[in-house]
Write a structure and sequence with these properties.
The protein is α/β, with parallel strands linked by helices. It has a domain of 174 residues: D-Maltodextrin-Binding Protein, domain 2 (3-Layer(aba) Sandwich). 28% of the residues lie in helices and 14% in strands. It has 17 helices and 17 strands. Strands 2, 3, 4, 5, 7, 8, 9, 10 and 15 form a nine-stranded mixed sheet that branches. The termini are close together.
Length: 515
């Protein structure tokens, strides 16, 4: 159901990312200035302002998208400092037109029964939670080589490991012992979708550790969306920050020495904070670059409403998978639909509906081009198509069929775009290294292609409804894209593009659509 890739296209990716913005098309989905009908149906609707709030996980992507939208005359505001639960709450109360979230409604206080406003989940980007840190070695040199296996991460973030000299940390770093300093655990205060995603992983990574922690704190057996700070703090030495941006800024500061925290990877990139190499189920160590996010999400499952079940991602044995990867979502209204029980009616303000539809079109295609560069991974083709379907449910119009001829999302071209490949693992140049480490290799210019399947099947894994959910879903089986060439009108442009930036080995990549 989710991301799958075939072959390596790194040499083409940088050139492709440069060449794609030169292309234009006759639809509202491509690169370049959108046609009039894609921007607004009238001057009245062009001026309609759309407001959204919620997820900080997606906020850096939203900043990129809303800036581009403004240039195109689409007015969208987004407040990403609130967190997913607060955004869903504002959407429920009709204070905003859409919400950004990683926390499904059923995992929040009140559950589905509290959501009186109709909605649909619309995946907008793939991302990952990075494990950020700020350390020095015994000689006082900054550490850029921290490796952590999943159980050790779980033990640190439940307070079971309290000092950097712990033997478990030493063991995952080739015997290199860190100073005996207390670990400062930086966390997000209040309710947060990023916290929910990360502690879903913590639970899956070491269930015995998690259950001892949960019982010690007398926490109910439900999804963790907010960490306790008092009267029983979740770890001995904790530092709370109210936003994702503040978390990364603190960990990267002088005051953040000896700290560790969790955050969407884009914030670590923005603040130039070190992130750990995390061991996956295949025994390989990776940082959360786009190629590893895309690889991991092949093992995710999407339910019929497109919400995600990620236990397969955490356990993925794919050699290049980064195990703390997840999609982010928009919540928007939709007309009554046979395939979405939660759809209860279109927007009353048609100007808002038109502006939001145009914004979602931008997100689906043009908006994916720079995602790898800023710390995410672009959607696979079939999830861009799901955005088009969501627009159809929202507006009552027939969804546009997206192809390589009318959508600039790099995954339609077998690429993840510029910045998708992880840098070399520092242990490769350190004496001793980490046994079995095969860190990121490549020049950072791109990554593998990605696509996804919309096939149906039963959800084979998953926790109970209060811990990330389960139920009938569509399996994330590996699929490819059996790409026929686009329509005749696009052939001359693409043929020229191919001769300039795409080597024959990339053009020969075959990917098949899953059923």
């Amino acid at each position: 159901m989710l991301i799958a890739s075939s072959g390596r296209h790194r040499a083409a990716n940088a050139g492709l990312a440069v060449a794609l913005p030169m292309m234009t098309c006759a639809f509202g989905w491509g690169v370049g200035p959108p046609p009039a009908q894609a921007t607004a149906s009238s001057s009245a609707t062009a001026a309609s302002l759309v407001n959204g709030s919620g997820s900080s996980y997606v906020a850096l992507a939203m900043e990129e998208w809303t800036t581009t939208a403004k240039v195109r005359g689409i007015k969208v505001n987004y407040n990403g400092n609130l967190g997913s639960p607060a955004g869903v709450g504002q959407y429920r109360q009709k204070q905003v037109d859409f919400a950004g979230t990683e926390a499904e409604v059923k995992s929040l206080t009140g559950g589905d029964a509290s959501m009186t406003r109709g909605y649909q989940y619309v995946p907008d980007v793939a991302g990952a939670v990075a494990v950020m840190y700020n350390l020095k070695d015994a000689a006082g040199r900054r550490v850029n080589w921290l490796h952590l296996d999943q159980r050790t991460i779980s033990r640190i973030f439940t307070g079971d490991i309290t000092h950097w000299s712990d033997p478990a940390i030493t063991a995952t770093n080739g015997g290199k012992r860190l100073p005996n300093e207390p670990i400062k655990v930086v966390y997000r205060t209040g309710q947060s979708g990023t916290t929910a995603l990360f502690y879903d992983f913590v639970r899956e990574a070491a269930r015995d550790v998690y259950e001892r922690w949960r019982r010690r704190l007398n926490l109910a057996d439900h999804r963790i969306v907010e960490l306790p700070a008092a009267p029983r703090p979740f770890a001995p030495n904790i530092i709370g920050k109210t936003t994702s941006d503040a978390m990364a800024a603190y960990v990267g500061s002088n005051n953040g020495l000896w700290s560790i925290g969790y955050d969407e990877f884009g914030y670590a990139k923005k603040h130039d904070v070190q992130v750990a190499h995390v061991k996956n189920g295949a025994g390989k160590w990776w940082q959360p670059y786009a190629e590893h996010i895309a690889e991991a999400l092949k093992d995710a499952t999407l339910r019929p409403d497109l919400s995600q079940e990620l236990s397969g991602v955490y356990r993925s044995r794919r050699p290049k998978a980064y195990p703390i990867s997840a999609y982010s979502y928009m919540m928007v209204q939709c007309g009554a639909s046979g395939d979405r029980a939660t759809c209860r009616g279109r927007y009353g303000d048609k100007g808002v509906e038109t502006s939001l539809a145009n914004f979602m079109r931008l997100v689906a295609c043009d908006g994916q081009v720079k995602m790898s560069r800023i710390g995410y991974s672009p959607l696979p083709p079939n999830l861009s198509q799901e955005i088009a379907k969501a627009v159809g449910r929202m507006t009552g119009r027939t969804p546009e069929r997206l192809t390589r001829s009318n959508c600039a999302n790099p995954t339609f071209y077998g690429s993840l775009g510029e910045g998708a490949t992880s840098p070399p693992d520092p242990f490769a140049s350190l004496p001793g290294g980490v046994a079995g480490t095969t860190g990121g290799q490549g020049d950072g210019s791109g990554g593998p292609g990605a696509t996804a399947s919309a096939g149906t099947g039963s959800n084979a894994g998953g926790a109970g409804a209060g811990t990330g959910g389960s139920g009938a879903g569509r399996g994330a089986k590996p699929v490819g894209f059996n790409g026929s060439m686009p329509g005749a009108g696009a052939l001359p442009v693409l043929a020229l593009l191919a001769t300039i930036v795409i080597p024959p080995s990339v053009m020969a990549v075959r990917r098949r659509l899953g059923g």
